[in-house]
Please model this.
Amino acid sequence: MINAGSINQIKPGKMQRIEAPDGKRLLVCNVAGHFYAIDDMCTHEDASLYLGCLKGEEIQCSLHGGRFNVKTGAATVEPAELPLQTYVVSLHDEQLMIAYPVPEQPQN
Ligand code: FES
Model:
């Protein structure tokens, strides 16, 4: 779990970049009071989505204009094709907690 700080730090329509202990960068997005966490790196090429633009529940990459849904991670506008990794966000005493890394799925 990563503590991404207070919910009051990220206003609706805004996002914040955080760094995981292993150096990976994540984005926490506030979409109308609901918080979502995604990878910061675009899946198309190496570009930080933090430099892009959050519009509603979609984030647009600044490099080629690809878009992703921050709730699902789905690529919605080309040239983005591969989905972004999403992370579960929970609240504890008004602190944003990010479930990172993603728990491994049990093998059958
Ligand atoms: S690097 Fe993001 S759309 Fe190309």
About this structure: The pocket of FE2/S2 (inorganic) cluster is lined by residues 42, 44-45, 47, 61, 63-64, 66, 79-80 (CB under 6 Å).
